[in-house]
Write a structure and sequence with these properties.
alpha/beta; 6-stranded mixed beta sheet; 6 strands; about 30% helix; binds inosinic acid
Length: about 190
Amino acid sequence: MELVLASNNKHKLNEISNIISNVCVLKSLSDIGCSVDIPETQPTIEGNAIQKARFIYDRFKMNCLADDTGLEIETLDGAPGVISARFAGVGCSFSDNMRKVLMLMEGKTNREAAFRTIFCLIIDGKEYLFEGRVDGIILEQERGENGFGYDPIFQPVGYDKTFAEMSLELKNTFSHRARACMKLVEFLGSTNK
Ligand code: IMP
């Protein structure tokens, strides 16, 4: 089967494609002639994933997949969460976001956090949600050069390295996105869609 990914991010398309290529073909928005900015205005990660998938399904009536991810920090009541991309303001950089987190976490002893990815899949109008989660801690300073976003300050449980100190190959074996993808693959495989 074919699925349209409701994202303009080529890196995401490749990453997800690699994992699900055995069960379906992932198409990009440009493959279907869609060049609009998809709205992401919901107050939750789940809400945004659903909003993006519905936006594509309603317009193109094509089976589709949308994802949304956030870093949730316990002592910050789940922030940055749904606004992870723009935590330090619209147009901010990954460094701005990390600086803001580190500043808010100064002196905090509870460093627990989790990355959460939600995939919303729509097949023939039916919606399915899949969650991938990685628990970890927020360090007191950045470590490592790889990855993106909050990777240099996030150390997953069971590792003594941040995501940014790991190879992409290792991160991709257990990241929040990879875990959500694996659930999706299992579902698509089991339903023979
Ligand atoms: P998105 O929903 O995948 O666009 O992710 C929203 C924001 O969460 C990104 O802009 C990053 O700041 C952060 N983020 C998502 N995935 C990761 C990751 O794997 N590592 C670090 N930060 C991430």
